[in-house]
Specification:
The complex is a heterodimer of chains A (357) and B (315). Chain A contains ten helices and six strands, in the order αββααββαββαααααα. Chain A is mostly helical and 357 residues long. In chain B, the strands form three sheets. In chain B, strands 1, 2, 3, 4, 5, 6, 8, 9, 12 and 13 form a ten-stranded mixed sheet that branches. In chain B, strands 10-11 form a two-stranded antiparallel ribbon. The chains are: A mainly alpha (357), B alpha+beta (315).
Chain lengths: 357, 315
């Protein structure tokens, strides 16, 4: 009797095991799509519409069963991920999730890089790179290493400086200490002003202010004012042709295209002007003195090339030659180029001179 | 115009941190949701909003007062709220005779409305009415979408994307397998969407755990109805134009992982590396010493031309 019982018990256990083994597998027509990074599963199988259209409790049961099956599949997939015990042997089992594959829209547009400041533009143009400065400086007087600036700095406390030399050309009655203090205040103020201007420029570039206000605010710079003045002049009924001009403003009307189109003098205009111009041209061609200032032209060309090179190399790393390397290369480079250019440029000095000047 | 041009300079560190949290970043913050009541929200809609707030707890804001606006006509007040509270997801509930129990679910891009979908709540069972154990707040839910409508229909596809965005929670690199408790199941059938929240307790009953061949255990899942269950029907939609949507999907280049050069993988999972060597003088190469190949004294003397041979050891 005991044997029978044992067999019966074993058979029952065997049946239970088999059933359980079946119960974690789920049959589906179409495979689900998984996005494990987001813990999302999408089931493409069309659900049995007829059954779900029915009444309450049956529908609930069906939905529950569907949910259970789908969840089982998703959890099985999640358990297949590489897992480890976080925090040592006794910690909880933690699975490494992959990157989410489903593309979701961002909250805000990606950040734009801030535009370079005036100094950064200049440094890039000239090829100046940051010098790494040591944090400690040797102080001769104290005979030890002191900070470059800050508490107990190398040059001694500037507020306790007891001697201020009167410079050569200065007024003997002037208070030198007051002058030093005033100059420091001015320097600080100028630095702060430039910093705010850089910030405003970055902010403006980011938000793309639509139109400059036509009334003068205190915060416009030269180019903006020039642009605004041009717009204001041209917005009259006769497009600015009869507007009174300031003494130093240019005499010709501002072109609407911003100077892109060429203008020519009329053919049968001023005979005297034409004659004087031709005579001047002949005189310049005949004289031995070169009209073109070679050094100025060369410098201008070098600056232009550097600007182009800087613009081209904006994305790439800067070359490791540095200032010294560039200095050594310059005479050879420019000599070749200016030598080559000297010949053709002397032929048309007027064009070169007026174009360059 | 000038006042808007001026840069607002923060005067304290706290203000600076506040502004930095709100500015656009490479890796963005978790999206917050704002739950707003319309001018004539009834009890059902209010309950729905409260339940969804409970589900989305630390990343949601529930406004208590009623706001008389119509999102489909005028979106400025929604955008104002979004800017003030820095929320990019919203759920607006209202009720009137023409559209009873109305819920408008939507998201923002750069504080402007991107997508809005209006859903009507036909049946609603609240959290309070289901007397079961609740899962802790802040759990990352599993989301399951059933039904082919979510792929076929464009509006349903956007709805799926919206729902994933809404309920997703923070993106984490790894997750505790025991903490996979909460499941949100959406079924799309016949123009209706059924949302059921369930908690799975495959953990609470150890006898249900089964051994797999590789030795790790996959639990059998048993689900228990827990959360709010909604029967929704889709009404109006206001979807973003294709190019605006594409613009919002754009990811900046900095997020792409940097490729390591000279490393390649093959199909079987083997990793190959490449080493670039300088030119080697093969005659001076140090190879393994094989005794059999060693030059015998006879050969060596023949090469050297009569140099004294080495003494050969007698065995």
């Amino acid at each position: 009797m005991a044997a029978v019982r044992v067999e019966a018990v074993l058979a029952a256990a065997e049946e239970q095991e088999a059933e359980k083994r079946r119960s974690i597998t789920v049959e589906k027509e179409l495979e689900l799509e998984y996005d494990l990074g987001n813990l999302v599963a999408v089931d493409r199988n069309p659900p049995s519409a007829a059954a779900l259209r029915g009444a309450g409790p049956r529908r609930e049961a069906l939905l529950q069963a569907l949910a259970r099956d789908n969840t089982q599949l998703l959890v099985s997939r999640l358990w297949e991920l590489p897992a480890e015990r976080a925090g040592g042997a006794g910690g909880p089992l933690v699975a490494q999730l992959p990157e989410p594959t489903f593309r979701l829209p961002r909250e805000k547009p990606p950040p734009k890089p801030r535009p370079p400041t005036r100094w950064e533009q200049f440094a890039r143009l000239k090829g100046i790179r940051r010098k790494k400065k040591t944090s400690l400086v040797w102080d001769e007087q104290a005979k030890e290493w002191r900070r470059r600036w800050g508490y107990r700095r190398a040059g001694g406390d500037p507020s306790r400086a007891w001697l201020a030399e009167v410079p050569a050309g200065a007024d003997p009655d002037e208070d030198q200490f007051a002058r030093l203090r005033r100059e420091k205040r001015e320097r600080v103020a100028r630095n702060e002003l430039n910093r705010l201007r850089n910030l405003a420029r970055a902010h403006r570039a980011g938000s793309a202010v639509p139109a400059a206000p036509l009334h003068p605010t205190g915060h416009q710079d030269r180019d903006e004012l020039r642009r605004v003045a041009r717009v204001a002049r041209v917005s009259t009924a006769s497009l600015g042709r009869f507007q009174p001009r300031l003494p130093k403003e240019s005499a010709e009307p501002p072109s609407r295209s911003g100077g892109k189109k060429r203008r020519f003098e009329p053919l049968l205009g001023n005979l005297a002007a034409e004659r004087s111009r031709q005579l001047e041209l002949l005189r310049d061609m005949g004289s031995k003195k070169p009209v073109l200032d070679i050094t100025r032209a060369v410098n201008k060309q070098m600056r232009q090339e550097e600007a182009e090179a800087a613009a081209a190399n904006k994305g790439k790393k800067q070359s490791k030659r540095g200032k010294r390397g560039r200095r050594q290369q310059r005479p050879g480079r420019s000599g070749k180029k200016s030598g080559a250019r000297r010949q053709p440029q002397q032929q048309k000095p007027a064009g070169g001179g007026s174009g360059g000047g | 115009m000038d006042a808007l041009d001026r840069v607002v300079k923060p005067k304290t560190k706290r203000a600076k941190r506040f502004l930095e949290k709100r500015e656009p970043k490479l890796n963005e913050n978790i999206k917050n949701a704002m739950l707003i009541k319309g001018g004539n929200a009834n009890l059902t809609v209010t309950e729905v909003l409260k339940d969804i707030y409970a589900v989305k707890k630390p990343f949601a804001v529930l406004y208590k007062r009623k706001n008389i606006t119509r999102p489909f006509e005028d979106q400025t007040s929604l955008e104002f709220f979004s800017k003030k509270s820095d929320c990019s997801l919203f759920l607006f509930g209202s009720h009137n005779k023409k559209r009873p129990n109305n819920l408008i679910i939507g998201r923002m891009f750069d504080y402007h409305v991107l997508d809005m979908i209006e859903l009507g709540v036909e049946k609603f069972v609240s959290l309070k009415d289901i007397k079961n154990s609740k899962c802790p707040e802040g759990t990352k839910p599993m989301l399951i979408f059933a039904g082919d409508m979510f792929d076929v229909n464009e509006e349903y596809r956007r709805l799926k994307s919206l729902l994933i965005d809404f309920f997703r929670g923070p993106t984490v690199p790894s997750i505790r397998l025991a903490g996979l408790e909460y499941v949100l199941h959406f079924t799309a059938v016949d123009g209706k969407i059924y949302m059921r929240d369930n908690i799975d307790f495959g953990w609470f009953s150890p006898p249900r755990v089964l051994l797999k061949k590789s030795g790790c255990k996959i639990p059998r899942i048993e689900l228990e109805e827990m959360g709010p269950s909604l029967d929704l029907v889709m009404r109006r939609t206001h979807l973003a134009s294709d190019d605006l949507y594409k613009l919002s999907l754009k990811q900046p280049k900095g997020l792409k992982p940097k490729k390591k050069k000279n490393i390649s993988h093959d199909v079987f999972g083997t990793t190959y590396g490449r080493i670039h060597m300088q030119k080697q003088d093969l005659s001076k190469l140090q190879t393994r010493k094989m005794k059999g190949l060693k030059k015998r004294p006879a050969e060596k003397s023949a090469e050297d031309g009569g140099a004294t041979p080495k003494k050969s050891k007698s065995a």
